[in-house]
Amino acid sequence: MCGRYSLTSPVEAMANLFEFSERPNLAPRYNVAPTQDVPVVLRQDDGTRALRLMRWGLVPHWAKEIGTAPLINARAETAANKPSFRAAFRKRRCLVPADGYYEWQTTAPGKQPYRIVLKDGGLFAFAGLWDLWTAPDGRELASCAFITLAPNPMLAAIHDRMPAILAPEACATWLDPAATPDALTALLVAYPEMRLRAYPVAKRVGQVANDDPEIVAEVAPEPPPAPKPARRAKAPSRQGDLF
Fold first, then answer.
1. Per the residue annotation, which of 2, 94, 144, 171 is the catalytic one?
2. Phi/psi zone of residue 183: left (φ > 0), alpha (ψ -120 to 50 degrees), beta?
3. Is residue 124 pLDDT above 60, yes or no?
4. Which one of the listed residues 94, 103, 144, 171 is annotated catalytic?
5. What is the distance between the alpha carbons of residues 243 and 229, in angstroms, rounded to a whole number?
6. Label partner for 115 (CA 20 to 30 A): which of 20, 126, 165, 240?
7. Is 65 in the active site?
């Protein structure tokens, strides 16, 4: 599961890489969290791409209500068939721009957060799904999730899942409405570990309110706790001695 990511790159860099024309004023985000509005890239009917803001936490179009447990991730193994995601997988795929994401490793001192980035820096895209939900009062809500899968060997040491990061040449296929299920599934593979870097960050990333440049700074991981001193053996009791 991936529940936090960053998007600090300028919108011009996003537009150049993902080929959309909009230039909204997007502030750097160091700690994007579920239920917040996030930028995604869609393919429009005329074949051009557009940048849109959507709620992170997909609400299926058939849902009766938004619900309290946001669907932030879809598993690659089941997204094509699971009721919550299968319509979006067929018809409403998107790119979720990012320049890093966070995952927590269970260690002896506690859970240590790591930031995972491209080794050479810069932007990448999660394979995303989106849907449009209409409330009983007619209000519409566009929402999204991104796909996760089994990690590469390096990231497996941190967590048992990773987001599906698309290679640049795969983005067009992911957005192509004519792409076959087999072609789409073939894109959902673990991004090569030699192209990624993972480094520890401060635990304050766990607090949604913390969204500043210090969040992405590398820190030394906490050392394991010192071993407890061995207990001194008790002297044997002399009760019952006759002499």
1. 2
2. alpha
3. yes
4. 103
5. 36
6. 20
7. no
